[in-house]
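The records we work with from here on pair a chain with its fold. These numbers are not coordinates but entries in a learned vocabulary of local backbone shapes. To see the layout at work, look at the sequence and tokens printed below:
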Amino acid sequence: MVGKTIGDLKKGDTASFSKTISEADIYLFAGVTGDFNPAHIDEQYAKGTFFKTRIAHGSLLAGFISTVMGTMLPGPGTVYVRQELNFLAPAHIGDTVTAVAEVLELDQTKNRAHLRTFCRNQDGVVLVDGLAIVSPPKAPKKK
């Protein structure tokens, strides 16, 4: 299965992925990455922080954006070139986060797509905002 090629994409194309964050997601992400920051895994510690409760890892949300790129837009075969992110608000256990990618610009000669990327919660609050450059898959070679 191959995703959309540069020729298949058009400005304004969008795709999204939604997931409700569970406590298990936070512990699994910590285990995979080694990021055991107590702001994510220790409620007693987190009560004393600015957020007053545990928050999800920002990179977990970035991973949701990667899901959109790698499975939907452009899709399988896409290679990340660059991702810039601004973390604007936290995600908490129980929040449903929707990651969105929108095609802003296409460079046919370099096979690059420029996309706006962001994550919002169930209340529409933008948690993460950014820009990505990806290399969409090339069309399969004809035999």
